[in-house]
Amino acid sequence: QVKLVESGGGLVQPGASLRLSCVVSGVTFTRYSMAWFRQAPEKEREFVAGVSRIGGSTYYADSVKGRFTISRDNAKNSIYLQMSSLKQEDTAVYYCAGRNASYGKYEAWGQGTQVTVSS
User: Fold this and answer.
1) Helix H or strand E encompassing 116
2) What is the pLDDT of residue 41?
3) Cα 105–59–37 angle (5° rounding)?
4) Rounded mean pLDDT, 93-99
5) Which residues lie across from 92 on neighbouring strands?
6) Any idea what DSSP says for residue 107?
7) 4 in helix, strand or coil?
8) DSSP characters over 53-78
9) Backbone torsions φ then ψ of 91, nearest 5 degrees
10) 60, 68 in Cβ contact below 8 A?
11) What tens digit of pLDDT does each residue of 41-90 get?
């Protein structure tokens, strides 16, 4: 059974950096394309960034392009989200997600990690 566990969230000031991690277990990790989503209070969950199975392709929401970097380490069954120049509007619960395909819905989700950007 697939399991995704996020870590690295916290409270930071505007302009700071933070790195989220997600460890995946229970599946052949290289078969999964992965992504980060986030959900702010009273808002719908939104896509943040995605990475292909091998890591050769990455995708970003316009709101984070140039500030966030997604990566994966297939040897560690992990993905990461390096966030810099954080803004208050980046405050949200961040979720790691995976799918056993290159396209389509993400069927595996972590429990989320809270990121709060506040002065």
Assistant:
1) strand 113-117
2) 92
3) 55
4) 97
5) 115
6) -
7) strand
8) SSSS-EEE-TTTTTTEEEEEETTTTE
9) -60, 125
10) yes
11) 999 999 999 999 987 899 999 999 999 999 999 999 999 999 999 999 99
